[in-house]
Amino acid sequence: MILIVGAFVGMIVLSVIGFNYGGAGGLIGGALGFLLRVGGRGIDWSERLGNAFIGAIMGMPLGFLAGGVYYFASPQILALIDAPPQ
Question: In terms of CB atoms within 10 Å, which end of the chain has fewer, N or C?
Answer without folding.
Answer: C
